[in-house]
TrEMBL record, chain A:
The gene is pdhA. It comes from Fodinibius sediminis. The keyword Oxidoreductase applies. Its EC number is 1.2.4.1. Heterodimer of an alpha and a beta chain. This is Pyruvate dehydrogenase E1 component subunit alpha.
Automatic annotation (TrEMBL), chain B:
Residues 1-71 form the Lipoyl-binding domain. Keywords: Acyltransferase, Lipoyl, Pyruvate, Transferase. The lineage of its organism: Bacteria, Pseudomonadati, Balneolota, Balneolia, Balneolales. GO terms for molecular function: acetyltransferase activity; lipoic acid binding. Its EC number is 2.3.1.-. Its cofactor is (R)-lipoate. Gene3D superfamilies: 2.40.50.100, Chloramphenicol acetyltransferase-like domain, E3-binding domain. It comes from Fodinibius sediminis. This is Dihydrolipoamide acetyltransferase component of pyruvate dehydrogenase complex.
UniProtKB/TrEMBL annotation, chain C:
GO terms for molecular function: oxidoreductase activity. This is Pyruvate dehydrogenase E1 component beta subunit. It comes from the Bacteria. The lineage of its organism: Bacteria, Pseudomonadati, Balneolota, Balneolia, Balneolales. PANTHER family: PYRUVATE DEHYDROGENASE E1 COMPONENT BETA SUBUNIT, PYRUVATE DEHYDROGENASE E1 COMPONENT SUBUNIT BETA.
Length: 338, 402, 332
């Protein structure tokens, strides 16, 4: 593609076209998450999906902006609100949907469900549904990579509620102490279930908190995918190049209830509406239109295309196989069936 | 009605935020429901026009019911998109069916009237299994454990004893059956009983010599006035004397079963009768202690006759609690008998012969009877045996009291 | 003549030798835990290993049980073979989230994609007047969890031979070392060979009663069995060795033979391994039992400090003897 003989103008235009391509890709990824989550909500009300269902609407820019910077050999450890992370990491929407349906074709074979998506192929170490439980694991994955002298890093997503837990502090300390390449991404959506952030933390400046472990840290507007992309790029590079941890706070908001059955007494509808004005997808689409990188028709095209992907994923899940009950005990242990 | 959690069954519609004719689009909030967790918005997943509000405000609506109808923008298949609308839910209907079923009273179980034993036998599971295998009735087994709990060893011991008893009885039956006909089977029966005795019973032997002058003189005196057929014979005297002694020494009268001595109340003196065709039978004079000498005599005569004709009753053959054997005039001097199991003693009388005896400090020739008591050492010991012989002598020296 | 056959070794040395050998054999193996390096291990088990293997492979951790245990689990899932040492089972409660919510379920929850080949060693048991917070035998608890394997070496041979197969096992393995056994010395002729980590072993054959036990209970039970033998009662002593998955076969074969079972466990009865074994025997061997299953277990109290009280709270050989003497049908 790129040759030495390129003119500066051509270089510029190719950079511009690359930029356009990337931005539209970011938008596309966010819309994929949004539409998948909306469908999941609908399917839940129809009892197609059961268990707990934690949706990511509103927070799409974080997963998309961060994961865009990761290499194939890097690992991701996420939480129970991880559909979006799995999707943009490369787990197919079909396998995610099938997992939520509890089907054998799901990315965890129907044993995990919405909260426990796993995919070894993409080093997606899954969703843990115990708050902060994934942080020690991510630290350990990074420890392994360091011992194995790999270039890889571990990227760990968690909500601000995890910051209240001891495992957060233990992991931050260990990662900093042992100089492990972990990127800690705190998705601060202001509520740990119903508990407002400012009522849970004595120090609400999480960057300060992270720095107390002598860890490099920064905070970014999690509703702005480009801002996240750029900040995460620095963070990933730092962790990889210096073999050091990095703490990145992404300030964001979830539109939906914590899980499904949640009357949301803890916040006002007005507050939700206010945040929706900062929606990462609509604001970014507007921005691209303004920059003439996107037309309304193109946006519609993306939406239609994604709707098709969602429909296909639902169909895939609907047609999925129920695992035979005889296999109930499979995977309790690696070698035996009991 | 949307399902917002697996524990949500129904909810009350608080208010509609739309009315028929309103245009709605995906994501709009069209109403509010009150759930057990509080107020929650109802969201729609379709774009279209509300054509009908099915549910009324204030109504409690089960999950999955149609609440409103929205006409989709597209014509055709999707025109009548419904809100959260799985129409048929077999699972939901099931509880109702179950209730119907439950309404019919269940049939009275057959077992209801069955009698339940008041005292349940305490036995270990293994003991029960073994009892079943060995066909042992646990209610007959004595347990060795705490509170009489029956363990495996108790059942096995019982079964062993039972098997031995049964074999013995079978052999006895056979003996009875064959007594008139032939000797082969009887020989076998005797062999079995004697082998068992030899195998199981630790015998001890005590012997003494009894001066028979007084009793024989007394007999002669009695017989002077009797017809030949009514004469009293020494064995009758001996049987009656033995029976009297046993009332005072019950330890020798009874059976050794289940590893224990079981004293019998009735004193049934079995006596060996040699048959002309060979072999012997041992009928018993039942309750000999309660019979007079005269009654003993007639029973004896009757029994010998019937024995030789093969007409003994089974009770007579199986009831002896002790055995007496007397080889009579032509017999040996002494008899070291073999106890007939499960009895615990056998009294052997040798022939009455003239032997030198010390009487009142001088040696004289007197009719003398040699008595040998064979005792089961599990059931009694030599002390008891000695007393038996001593008392037997006393009885015989006072025949008039018999 | 055979030098190996004459070798004597303490339990502590056996564990250390097992770790040294594993680290020599496999670069992926490393030891991490509180005071395993400079201090030499809280029970002196890893003494000298820091000098031999260096800081990267004998890792002193801060007092962050959940953090470093989770770290070991993550490292295992990412290809390493960590040996995580938790000082005692009591502190493992701080890491229970990682052990139970992650290690035990990752393989299942991920539909067989991510296994966790971690080995977590910890000291267990009471008897040293350490009072309520340092004297528990909670291996029972961990044995409740599907997905974990629970080993309880009671002999020098097992202490030496169980570690390598545990490291080779693709699933999380917890090894419980009774702290009163570290000084226990015995002849060792294993020559570094591994032992299986799936079966129970009959340590003493007998015909009258089966004593089912593990760990320190094995030694108390063997003592009791010798005494009983003098009275004509022959006890068969079964060393469970593995509390999960339990080796039903060996246990059942023994009880089928003796028709009587006593379970000896320093742990509590309620909901413990003794309850589990008793239930399994009753479920499967009811008609083989000649008397009820008996249990000689730790008294259901927090461990007291005073020596006489603590001793009274733990199963003792005399208690085992008396329990067996009273068992129905035992004589004959």
């Amino acid at each position: 593609m790129a040759t030495k003989k390129k003119t500066p103008a051509k270089k510029k235009s190719s950079r511009k076209s690359r930029e356009k391509e990337q931005k539209r890709h970011l938008l596309h990824q966010m819309i994929r998450i949004r539409q998948m989550e909306e469908k999941a909500y609908e399917l839940y009300t129809q009892e197609k999906i059961r268990g707990f269902l934690h949706l990511y609407d509103g927070e799409e820019a974080v997963a998309v902006g961060v994961i865009e910077n990761l290499q194939k050999e890097d690992s991701i450890v996420a939480t129970y609100r991880e559909h979006g992370h799995a999707l943009v990491r490369g787990v197919s929407m079909e396998r995610i949907m099938a997992e939520m349906y509890g089907k054998l074709e799901g990315c965890s074979g129907g044993r995990g469900g919405s909260m426990h998506l796993y995919d070894k192929e993409t080093n997606f170490f899954g969703g843990s549904a115990i708050v902060a439980n994934g942080l020690p694991m991510a630290t350990g994955v990074a420890l392994a990579y360091k011992r194995q002298q790999k270039e890889a890093i571990a990227c760990c997503f968690f909500g601000e509620g995890a910051v209240d837990e001891g495992e957060f502090h233990e992991s931050m300390n260990l990662a900093a102490l042992w100089k492990l390449p972990v990127l800690f991404v705190c998705e601060n959506n202001l509520y740990s279930m119903g508990m407002p952030f400012e009522l849970a933390e004595s120090e609400t400046d999480l960057v300060t908190k992270a720095r107390s472990y002598k860890m490099k840290a920064s905070s970014v507007n999690g509703m702005d995918v480009l801002a996240v992309l750029q900040e995460a790029r620095k963070a990933v590079a730092y962790a990889r190049d210096n073999q050091q941890p990095y703490f990145l706070e992404c300030r964001t908001y979830r539109y939906r209830a914590h899980s499904m059955f949640d009357p949301e007494r803890y916040r006002s509808k007005e507050e939700v509406q206010e945040w929706k004005k900062k929606d990462p997808i609509t604001t970014f689409a507007e921005k691209l239109k303004k920059e003439q990188l996107l037309t309304d028709e193109e946006l519609q095209h993306i939406n239609r295309e994604v709707a098709g992907e969602v429909a296909q994923a639902v169909q895939f899940a609907e047609e999925g196989t129920d695992e035979p009950i005889e296999n109930l005990s499979q995977f309790v242990y690696s070698n035996s069936k009991n | 009605m949307p399902s917002l959690g697996s524990q949500m069954i129904e909810a009350r519609l608080i208010q509609w935020l739309v009315k028929p004719g309103d245009t709605v689009k995906r994501g709009d909030i069209i109403g509010e429901i009150d759930t057990e967790k509080g107020l929650i918005d109802i969201e729609v997943f379709e774009d279209g026009v509300v054509t009908e509000l099915v549910s009324e405000e204030g109504e409690v609506i089960p999950v999955g019911s149609v609440m409103a109808v929205i006409d989709g923008e597209d014509e055709g298949e999707k025109a009548k998109a419904k809100l959260a609308s799985p129409p048929e839910e077999p699972e939901k209907k099931e509880p109702r069916k179950k209730r119907e079923k439950a309404a019919t009273p269940p049939e009275q179980p057959e077992t209801a009237s069955r009698e339940v034993p008041l005292h349940r036998v305490k036995a270990s599971p293994l003991a029960r299994r073994v009892a079943e295998d060995l066909q042992v009735d646990l209610s007959k087994v004595k347990g060795s454990g705490a509170e009489g709990t029956i363990h495996k060893k108790d059942v096995e011991a019982f079964a062993k004893q039972k098997a031995a008893d049964e074999t013995f009885e079978k052999e006895l039956d056979m003996a009875e059956h064959l007594s008139a006909a032939g000797t082969g089977g009887m020989r076998q029966a005797i062999a079995a009983a004697m082998s068992r005795s030899n195998r199981e019973i630790p015998h001890y032997y005590l012997e003494t010599e009894i001066d028979m002058k007084v009793p024989l003189d007394w007999l002669n005196e009695q017989n002077k006035e009797r017809a030949v057929s009514d004469r009293l014979l020494p064995p009758m005297l001996l049987i009656k004397a033995v029976a009297n002694v046993l009332t005072e020494l019950p330890a020798l009268n009874g059976f050794w079963t289940d590893e224990a001595m079981h004293v019998e109340e009735g004193i049934h003196i079995g006596f060996a009768i040699a048959l002309r065709q060979g072999g012997l039978v041992i009928p018993a004079i039942l309750n000999a202690d309660l019979k007079s000498l005269e009654e003993t005599r007639s029973a004896f005569v009757d029994m010998v006759m019937r024995a030789r004709e093969g007409h003994l009753r089974s009770r007579e053959i199986s009831s002896a609690t002790i055995t007496v054997t007397s080889l009579g005039e032509r017999g040996a001097d002494k008899v070291y008998g073999v106890i007939y199991p499960p009895q615990v003693a056998l009294v052997g009388f040798g022939k009455i012969a003239k032997r030198p005896q010390t009487v009142d400090g001088a040696i004289g020739i007197r009719p003398t009877l040699s008595v040998v008591l064979a005792g089961d050492h599990r059931a009694s010991d030599g002390h008891t045996g000695s007393r038996f012989l001593e008392k037997l002598n006393e009885q015989l020296q006072h025949p008039e009291a018999l | 003549m055979n030098k190996a056959a004459q070798q004597h070794m303490t339990y502590r040395q056996a564990v250390r030798e097992a770790m040294r050998e594993a680290m020599q054999k496999d670069d992926r193996v490393f030891l991490m835990g509180e005071d395993v390096g400079r201090y030499g291990g809280c029970f002196n088990v890893s003494e000298g290993m820091l000098q031999e293997f260096g800081e990267d492979r004998v890792v002193d951790t801060p007092l962050s049980e959940s953090g470093f245990t989770g770290c070991g689990i993550g490292a295992a899932a990412a290809g390493m073979r960590p040996i995580v040492e938790i000082m005692t089972v009591n502190f493992s409660l701080l890491a229970a989230d990682q052990i139970i919510n992650t290690a035990a379920v990752l393989y299942y929850m991920s539909g067989g994609q991510f296994n966790v080949p971690v080995v977590i060693r910890m000291a267990t048991g009471g008897g040293k007047q350490l009072a309520a917070q340092h004297s528990r035998s909670l291996e029972n608890w961990y044995a409740h969890i599907p997905g974990l394997k629970i080993l309880t070496p009671a002999t020098v041979e097992d202490a030496r031979g169980m570690l390598w197969p545990a490291l080779e096992d693709p699933d999380p393995v917890l090894i419980f070392e009774n702290s009163t056994l570290y000084n226990y010395e015995d002849a060792y002729s294993g020559n570094g060979h591994t032992v299986d980590i799936s079966t129970a072993r009959v340590r003493r054959a007998g015909s009258d009663v089966s004593i089912l036990t593990y760990g320190i209970g094995l030694h108390k039970s063997l003592k009791a069995a010798e005494q009983l033998s003098k009275q004509g009662i022959e006890a068969e002593v079964v060393d469970l060795r593995v509390l999960r998955p339990l080796d039903n076969e060996t246990v059942f074969a023994s009880v089928r033979k003796t028709h009587r079972a006593v379970i000896v466990d320093e742990g509590w009865k309620s909901g413990g391994i003794s309850a589990e074994l008793s239930a399994r025997i009753t479920e499967s061997l009811f008609y083989d039992l000649d008397c009820p299953v008996e249990r000689v277990c730790g008294a259901e109290v927090p461990a007291p400090y005073a020596r006489h009280l603590e001793q009274a709270s733990l199963p003792q050989p005399q208690q085992i003897i008396e329990t067996i003497q009273k068992m129905g049908g035992i004589h004959g």
